[in-house]
Amino acid sequence: MAILDGDGIIRDVRVEHFPEVNSPGFPKSKAKDLRLKALSRLLDYAYYHGVSVVFFEDLSMIKRKGGKVVRSKKGNRKASNFAKKELLEHGITMALKRGFEVFLVNPTGSSKLGRELSRGLDLDIHSSSAFVIGLLGLNYLKTHKHSQKEEQFR
Q: How, if at all, do strands 10-13 and 2-4 pair?
């Protein structure tokens, strides 16, 4: 998670790691519980730091190519074990309960750009990808609000 101000400046970053959930034989129910609790902690952290808008990757836009996400067995297992729809729905519900405005952002290219920016920003790849998602969301909001103002004057 990256917390940005209205100008797109990073104010804070927070990452939750739990690599064990992708291990072969790790119980799916326990993995789900770990993911959802981590998401709750991140949203609580954002709430108590004055965040009002949350941008989530629109995970439904991530498509698999030929039934595979990547070319490695380990990567394919991780992708197939990841309950993206469930996590997104739960995240949206929890964010709305906390009073956040919620927007979904097309994640296309965010990981690649995040990887490229990570060295310059001195952040890990996940935090820099979250930064890119935040910038895309802020750009959408600024563009959308600008077009709404134009509509009011017509």
A: antiparallel
Residue 129: DSSP 8-state:
H
Q: Is the dihedral of CA 105, 12, 112, 125 positive or negative?
A: negative
Q: Which amino acid is it at 63?
A: K
Span 54-70, average pLDDT: 67
User: What percent of the residues of the chain are helix, what percent strand, and what percent coil, each to the nearest 5?
Assistant: 60, 10, 30
Q: Chain centroid to CA 44: how far?
A: 15
Residue showing tokens 């060295």: 119
Please state whether the predicted TM-score (pTM) of the whole model is above 0.70.
yes
Q: What pLDDT, in 10s, does the model give residues 17-28?
A: 877 877 888 888
Domains and CATH numbers, the chain: 2-152 (3.30.420)
Residue 104, phi then psi, degrees to nearest 5: -100, 135
Which candidate, 15, 25, 17, places its Cα nearest to that of 77?
25
